[in-house]
């Protein structure tokens, strides 16, 4: 390709000399542009979901190829967000695809300096045992004046911004049933 041919291939020159003076069509298209396809075009499936970050409940479309999430975008059919996502929602793909995401149960023993991998069943049993022991040790049936309390001050819950309304509802029910009174949530962006 000569210099003249290369120069005439510039989009601005094609725009000025061609039939697309506003630069909205063929003047701005190139061979590379023609080969470009959206990241979502090759997805095997698209699943509708809800953004996990706050209680707003923005709709998301999750694009999957070969069993892996390839893209997450706002769902234009969502009556709540109408296809829009905040910066956190737009970056939510990182929740499932980040190489630094922990996917195994890690446990650091008391006074330990290293993390050990545990089977999920063992970790769940350890948590249940500790919750029951703490509740038993800190249970207050009555106060000093004989008034019924039925509570524990040894267990508390602090929810975060990645919990949705349903999860918060279930956590409130669970902790209340266990007798906890300190149940809080930070659900702001």
Walk me through what this model shows.
Its EC number is 1.17.1.9. It is an enzyme of class 1 (oxidoreductase). InterPro entries: Mopterin_OxRdtase_4Fe-4S_dom. Belongs to the prokaryotic molybdopterin-containing oxidoreductase family. The chain is α+β, with helices and mostly antiparallel strands and 189 residues long. It folds into three domains: 33 residues, no CATH class; 53 residues, Phosphorylase Kinase, domain 1, CATH 3.30.200; 81 residues, no CATH class. The protein has seven helices and eight strands. The longest helix has 19 residues. It starts with a helix and ends with a strand.
How many helices?
7
Across the major sheet, the strand order is: 1-2-3
The strand count comes to 8
Please indicate the count of domains.
Answer: 3
Shape type: elongated
SSE run: HHHEEEHHEEHEEHE
Instruction: Report strand %.
Output: 25-35%
User: What is the end-to-end distance?
Assistant: 54 Å
Major beta-sheet overview? 3 strands, antiparallel
What percent of residues adopt helix (DSSP H or I)? 25-40%
């Amino acid at each position: 390709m000569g210099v003249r041919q290369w120069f005439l291939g510039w989009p601005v020159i094609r725009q000025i000399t061609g039939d697309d003076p506003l630069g909205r069509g063929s003047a701005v298209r190139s061979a590379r542009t023609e080969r470009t396809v959206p990241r979502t075009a090759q997805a095997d499936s698209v699943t509708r979901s809800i953004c996990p970050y706050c209680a707003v409940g923005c709709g998301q479309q999750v694009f999957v190829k070969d069993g892996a999430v390839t893209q997450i975008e706002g769902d234009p059919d969502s009556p709540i967000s109408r296809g829009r996502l905040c910066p956190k929602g737009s970056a939510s793909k990182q929740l499932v695809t980040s190489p630094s995401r922990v996917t195994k149960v890690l446990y650091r023993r008391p006074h330990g300096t290293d993390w050990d991998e545990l089977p999920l069943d063992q970790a769940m049993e350890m948590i249940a045992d500790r919750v029951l022991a703490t509740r038993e040790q800190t249970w207050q049936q009555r106060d000093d004046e004989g008034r019924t309390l039925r509570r524990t001050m040894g267990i508390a819950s602090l929810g975060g911004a990645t919990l949705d309304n349903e999860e918060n509802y279930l956590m409130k029910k669970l902790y209340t049933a266990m007798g906890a009174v300190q149940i809080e949530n930070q659900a702001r962006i």
